[in-house]
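Need tokens for this chain, all 236 residues.
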Amino acid sequence: MAIPRIPLMLSMMVMLLVFAESGDNNRVFSPCADTTVQKSDGFTFGIAFASRDKFSYNNTLLSPCDRRLALSSQNSQIAVFRPKVDEISSSPSTPPPGDYGGYMVAFAGRKYAARSSLAFVSNSTYTVTSFTLVLESKKGRLQNLYWKRDGCSACSGDNKFVCLNNQDCAIKTGDCKGQGGSVDCSLGIQLAFSGTDKHYSVLNSWYEVKNLRQYSLYGLYANLADSLTSQYNKIF
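Here are the structure tokens for all 236 residues:
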């Protein structure tokens, strides 16, 4: 099937990972369009990579769907994903975003725009490779996207890693493949849902994620046996 054009006039590298599956009754494929969903629908959202300042307009953090941002003329990247509502899933690994400014924001919607806070991913010193993103809905409409941190419990006591801001496990960028090291530092993002769908059914996948260790989940989906996550005490 043809991939609908994203209504973002961005002259940047665009990575589209959008498709419909059986049981998916949501016909909205753009991350910058509004929709309501039910369990088993697909839901399209985007993640933009750029430098920290490129996400703000007059000192206010905006959604990448907002045309007031100058992303179209900046060194930026956008990836688009379509997970199934209320299923735990993992984004395919994306290229390390250090060349695109080192920060990311998740977003969806226009009139009912929602976006996450800024998340640091990579610079010349440190790289964070694993995140959990929760999509929170009310009556099937997205209300919020937020990064769920584990407070560095996965790398506690391991001198190969650094705990950044008491919330993210990071590895030295020089230890990554392509930077002189041997560690696969591809970015992996685990996705889960909370809230209710348009039929008021409770979305429970986030509660399932809470019972799993974040990095073992990453290993389960990404199958990177020799990557960064395999070093977290061989927990998968």
